[in-house]
Design a protein that fits this description.
single chain, alpha+beta
Amino acid sequence: RKAITVVCDYHPNLPPVSGDPVQLQEVLLSLLVNASEAISAAGDGPRDITVGTAVREPGLVEIAIGDTGIGVEEAEMERIFERFVSRKQDGLGMGLATSRSVIQAHGGRIWATRSPRRGLTVHVALPIAHRTFVQ
């Protein structure tokens, strides 16, 4: 409906993470909606969302959601995760703040980087689940 192409780049054999699947799903859905809205606000140009997974650091799985939307100025990069900070005209400024709280409660971290072409990439790093063996 919005003519957005979603490109998936998943790491094969990704180790599992532990956490509340509903909360983590809500975070990822929120990030995808934000990406879609940023692309709509950008007007003409590329309309892509990239979703990738990788093991970037020992013990952490990274999920990255990038868009070709309006982006964020470098000076605002940390502020976008604060409560009541929104670039949307009708936004409450709670989505990224709530996402950060959920990810931190799961022992992870969330941050954003400016995309090389245009737009923003939000990165979520979560600890790999530790398996316990019962004998």
